[in-house]
Design brief:
The chain has 85 residues and is mostly helical. It has 5 helices and no strands. It is globular and about 35 Å long.
C-alpha cells in the first residue's frame, strides 16, 4: 500500500496531466479531448481522497506555490478552483 506522500505525488501528477491536456484542447488539439474527458473524471476522486486524508490544503498550497506560466496558467486556475470549492 502506498503512503500518503506517494499518493499525493501521484495525485499531483494526474493534476499536472489534466492541466496540460486542458491547454492542448484549448489550443485545438482534438486528439487530447478523449483523454481529457477520461482524466477529468479522476479529479472528484482526488478531491475526496484529499479531504479524507487531510491533504486538501497540501494540494491547494501546491497550486499557490507553482508557477504554471504561459498558457497553462488559465487551465491551472480552472483546476485549482475545483479544489477551492
Amino acid at each position: 500500500m502506498k503512503t500518503t506522500n506517494e499518493q499525493r505525488i501521484a495525485a499531483i501528477r494526474v493534476i499536472n496531466n489534466i492541466i496540460t491536456l486542458k491547454t492542448n484542447v484549448f489550443n485545438g488539439c482534438e486528439a487530447d479531448e478523449l483523454e481529457l474527458e477520461k482524466e477529468s473524471k479522476r479529479l472528484e476522486g482526488i478531491k475526496t481522497w484529499a479531504i479524507n486524508n487531510d491533504q486538501l490544503q497540501e494540494i491547494r498550497s501546491y497550486f499557490a506555490s507553482k508557477n504554471f506560466g504561459g498558457h497553462n496558467q488559465f487551465a491551472a486556475a480552472e483546476v485549482a478552483s475545483f479544489f477551492n470549492a
